[in-house]
Design goal:
The structure is a single chain. By secondary structure, the protein is an alpha/beta fold. It is built from eleven helices and ten strands. It folds into two domains: about 5-200, Alpha-Beta Complex (2-enoyl-CoA Hydratase, Chain A, domain 1), CATH 3.90.226.10; about 205-250, Orthogonal Bundle (Lyase 2-enoyl-coa Hydratase, Chain  A, domain 2). It has a six-stranded mixed β-sheet with strand order 1-2-3-5-7-10, sandwiched between helices. A hairpin with a 2-residue loop joins β1 (about 5-10) and β2.
């Protein structure tokens, strides 16, 4: 039996999803997209999972993007279905009510970069390479790259990278703000787990509302954004977690949050 295209590992409130097609540089085919979509959909309702880490199997690639061998066999209608599926999936990753960390362990091109862009935090190994290379295949980024990349690194730099299809290494990705931090390959998962563990110490409802306020506020003017923040804050006030935080501070102990 062929091993599943998506591996799942859970520990201490952290769930790791590993794109498991190393023989294809973890490229996205329909099977992998559907498996990933099933997980993202179910995680929306799991209170026991606080943070999701997405990475690629092996040491070479996070994901090289769409599986071009599969793509060559698809009709025009099937290509439209693929783009529709991957775009909606990455939007679901972006809108998930929990933080998502992309552990970029190697090559991340096309859809691989777009999955990282849809994540909340991007941590890359020193051997990582990123790029929106679609124009070199006479197409454009179709899973959010034309929208998320300029919002993260600015429109001028985004246009340069998309228009040229140029790839950037880990250091340049850090310099232009494409990733949050970089580290040696053997330290990547430790770095991601450390960040995830820090997040797990915080209030679950607060994190959900903070992510919502940031994401929705980025797409509007500051006055509307402040109103979104205000409404998100109000939702944290009547929670048991807020009172637990105050009690723990007074008692000089770590709070125990339950997402209530």
């Amino acid at each position: 039996m062929t091993e599943k295209a998506l591996l799942i590992h859970e520990q201490n409130g952290i769930l790791r999803l590993t794109l498991n097609r190393p023989e294809s540089m973890n490229a996205f085919n329909f099977e992998l997209l559907r498996l990933l979509n099933d997980q993202i959909s179910s995680l929306q309702f799991r209170k026991d999972i606080r943070v999701i880490i997405i990475t690629g199997a092996g040491e070479k690639a996070f994901s090289a993007g769409a599986d071009l061998k599969e793509r060559a066999t698809l009709t025009d209608i099937q290509v439209r279905e693929f783009i529709f599926t991957i775009r909606n999936l990455f939007t679901a990753v972006e809108n998930l009510n929990k933080p998502v960390i992309a552990a970029i362990n190697g090559i991340a091109l096309g859809g691989g970069t777009e999955l990282a862009l849809a994540s909340d935090i991007r941590i890359a190994s020193m051997n990582a390479t990123m790029g929106q290379t679609e124009t070199r295949l006479a197409i454009i980024p179709g899973a959010g790259g034309t929208q998320r990349l300029p919002r993260i690194i600015g429109p001028g730099k985004a246009k340069e990278l998309i228009f040229t299809g140029r790839q950037v290494g880990a250091q340049e990705a850090l310099d232009i703000g494409l990733v949050n931090t970089i580290c040696e390959p053997d330290k990547l998962m430790n770095e991601c787990n450390n960040v995830a563990s820090l997040i797990c110490e915080t209030g679950p409802i607060a994190i959900e509302q903070a992510k919502y306020a940031i994401n929705r506020g980025m797409d509007t003017d500051i006055h509307t954004g402040l109103a979104i923040e205000s409404n998100a804050y109000w939702l944290t006030i009547p929670t048991k977690d807020r009172m637990e935080g105050l009690t723990a501070f007074r008692e000089k102990r770590k709070p125990v949050y339950k997402g209530e």
